[in-house]
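Appendix B, record 7
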Amino acid sequence: MMKKILFILFAFITLLSITNSLHAQIGIKAGVNFSSLKFFDDNSEDNFNEEFITGYQVGAVYVVGLGDKLSFQPEAAFYTRGGKASLDQFTDIENTYNYLNLDGLLNYNLIGNNDGLSLRITGGVFVGYALSATATTTSGGSSAEMDIDLDTEGLDRSNVGYVLGVGVKLNKLLVSLRASIGVTEIGKIDTALGSGQTTFRSREFSLVGAYLF
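Structure tokens (predicted):
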């Protein structure tokens, strides 16, 4: 998977050089993430949703205008995402994953154009690679944090999914609301007696702001 990430990063850099002569802008972005993990049980029709936790994202954005209505927006950023669950009425566990994330987004202007004010809808895909992860257990008012070994069998560092959102562009300022839904299984847990598996995927809602130079 790391080779795929490096290939995508290389393609990202190549794209920047190719589109340098087009109507394009580079910028920085930052945002707040509200994420959780969704569990799927082989032996049950009921899926379990963890509580949302707050994380952040920070990175670079590149916007290439494709006429007045369309624009292509690749992004590279550091993300934190995860989820929180109650083991019992006294104990909570919060999992936090640190990701290198690459997004490929296509924007369509409902109102306005790429040069000034526009109201946009956004769709695309993301590819993430988990750099590290921690699990924080809280019980009786005290907390303990431990590292998660992402190379353990059953866990996957890669995370792929799709992005949907809406946003506003005002000259050099971008603001957007997004939903990022993972489609790959980033973890598998054997159920009791080995009769099946419980898998989990990421889901996330974000408020993102960017400034273009």
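Remarks on this record: DSSP finds one helix and eleven strands in the chain. The chain has a mean pLDDT of 88.
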